[in-house]
Design brief:
This protein is of the alpha+beta class. The chain contains 14 helices and 11 strands. α1 crosses α12 (319-355), α2 packs antiparallel against α10 and α2 packs antiparallel against α13. The longest helix has 44 residues, at 261-304.
C-alpha cells in the first residue's frame, strides 16, 4: 500500500468519525440494533456455557466417570454371584467394583430409634473413590470378608440417636442386630437435594455389603458401581463389561442395564449446544435489523452529502475512494455497536450467572463471534449505499449545491 493510499485511508477514517460525531443521536439509534443483537448473542452463549459447566461439574461429582450396572438377571438366575463379580473385576481398566445394596430398616440405640432409615451395603472401593467419611474410618476389606458388624452413620442419625454423645465406638441396632459405629458420614449432594425439596430425611447408614446381604437375605448382587482407571476408555470398557454380562446371563435380553453418567453428560451437552445455536440464530435477527438500519442511514447520508460527493469527484476523487469512505463509515458504526454490545453482553451474563448461582466465565469465543458478525453486517449492508455514492455523476451532484 503506497503513501497516497495510506493518506486516503486516514482521511476516509477521519471524515467518517467526524460525520458520526456530528450526528451522534442518529448514529446511536442506527447502531442500537447491532448493540441489542451482539448483547443477546454474547449473553445467551455465555450463560448457557456457564450453566453447562456447572451441570457438568455436578454430574462429575456424582460419578460421571463411573459405570452403573443394574443386573436384574433372568428367571433362572437373579443377579451376579461372586464368580461373576470377579470376572468383571478382572476386566482391563476396571479399578474396582462396589456392590450397591439399599434397604429400609429400623435402627435403634438406647436413647432412640428410627423406623425407616436407609441402610446401604458398600465395600472399600466405594470409600476409596468417594470422599464421604468426615470422622472415623471407612469400611476396609477385612470388614467385608469377615462380615464385621460395623457401620457409618450420617449426621441425621447422629443427632437423632446420639444427641450430645460422640457416636464413634458406640453400639447401634440394625433390624435387631448390634453394630459398632466406626465413622460419621459427611453431608452428600443427595442430602442437600432432599433438604432443598423439603423431604423428610430419616437418616443414612452404611454397612459392609456382605452384612447387608445377610440383613436382606439375598445371595447375589443386582446393583453395583464399576470404577474405571481411565475415564477416556469408558466406551470400550463398557463393551467388555456388556460381553461379560451377556455371558453370565446366557445372552438373554433385558437381563441387565448398563448406565454411564458420562453418556448422559455428553447427551446433555449436545442438546445444550443445539439450543445455544438456535437461540444465537434467533438473536442474530437483531443484527440483520441493525444492518438494515445502517443501510437506511447510509442511504440518507448519501442523499444529504450529494454535493460533497460531487465536489470530491470534481477534484479528482476516484469512485473507489468514495465507496471506501462510506464503507469505512458503515464498518465503524457496526464495530462501535458490536463493542458496546460486547460489554453489555458480558455484564448481563455475569448478572444472570450470579442470580442463578452459576460460575461465570467470560466466553472469548462468543465475544469474538459477536464483534465479527457486527463488523460483517456493517460491510454487507453498507455496500449498497457506498456503491450508490461512488456511481453518482459529478455534474448532477454539483447541480444540487
Amino acid at each position: 500500500m503506497g503513501i497516497s493510499s495510506l493518506y486516503m485511508l486516514r482521511e476516509n477514517i477521519s471524515m467518517s468519525l467526524s460525520n458520526i460525531i456530528n450526528n451522534r443521536l442518529r448514529a446511536f439509534l442506527t447502531t442500537l440494533g447491532i448493540m441489542i443483537g451482539v448483547t443477546a448473542i454474547i449473553a445467551l452463549i455465555t450463560i448457557v456455557q456457564s450453566v453447562t459447566t456447572e451441570m457438568t461439574e455436578q454430574f462429575t461429582a456424582l460419578g460421571a466417570s463411573n459405570v452403573n450396572i443394574n443386573a436384574s438377571g433372568t428367571a433362572l438366575k437373579r443377579g451376579l454371584n461372586p464368580s461373576d463379580m470377579q470376572t468383571l473385576l478382572n476386566i482391563e481398566n476396571v479399578a474396582g467394583i462396589s456392590p450397591n445394596i439399599s434397604l429400609t430398616l429400623t435402627v435403634a440405640t438406647e436413647t432412640g430409634w428410627e423406623e425407616e432409615a436407609t441402610v446401604e451395603g458398600r465395600n472399600e472401593h466405594y470409600f476409596a473413590s468417594e470422599n464421604v467419611v468426615e470422622r472415623g474410618r471407612a469400611i476396609n476389606p477385612i470388614d467385608t470378608e469377615s462380615i464385621n458388624r460395623v457401620c457409618l452413620i450420617d449426621k441425621t442419625l447422629m443427632k437423632s440417636l446420639f444427641y450430645g454423645i460422640d457416636p464413634l465406638g458406640k453400639q447401634i441396632s440394625i433390624s435387631g442386630i448390634s453394630h459398632t459405629v466406626i465413622g460419621v458420614l459427611a453431608s452428600s449432594n443427595m442430602d442437600l437435594m432432599r433438604q432443598a425439596q423439603g423431604g423428610r430425611d430419616n437418616g443414612r447408614i452404611i454397612v459392609p455389603y456382605t452384612d447387608a446381604m445377610k440383613l436382606s437375605g439375598t445371595q447375589n448382587i443386582t446393583s453395583m458401581v464399576v470404577y474405571l482407571k481411565d475415564s477416556s476408555l469408558a466406551e470400550e470398557t463398557i463393551k467388555k463389561l456388556e460381553h461379560a454380562l451377556d455371558t453370565a446371563f446366557n445372552f438373554k435380553e433385558n437381563s441387565y442395564f448398563v448406565f454411564n453418567m458420562q453418556s448422559l453428560v455428553d447427551t446433555m451437552n449436545t442438546v445444550l449446544d443445539m439450543m445455544t445455536a438456535l437461540l444465537a440464530g434467533i438473536a442474530s435477527i437483531s443484527l440483520v435489523v441493525g444492518g438494515i438500519g445502517i443501510m437506511n442511514m447510509m442511504l440518507v447520508s448519501v442523499t444529504e452529502r450529494t454535493s460533497e460527493i460531487g465536489l470530491r469527484k470534481a477534484l479528482g476523487a476516484q469512485p473507489k475512494h468514495i465507496q471506501g469512505q462510506f464503507l469505512i463509515e458503515s464498518f465503524i458504526l457496526s464495530v462501535i455497536g458490536g463493542i458496546i454490545g460486547a460489554f453489555l453482553g458480558v455484564g448481563l451474563s455475569a448478572l444472570f450467572c450470579n442470580i442463578m448461582d452459576a460460575k461465570f466465565t467470560i466466553s472469548w469465543s462468543a465475544i469474538s463471534l459477536g464483534v465479527f458478525f457486527s463488523a460483517a453486517v456493517g460491510i454487507v449492508f453498507g455496500w449498497a449505499p457506498a456503491r450508490r455514492a461512488s456511481n453518482l455523476n459529478p455534474i448532477d451532484a454539483l447541480r444540487s449545491m
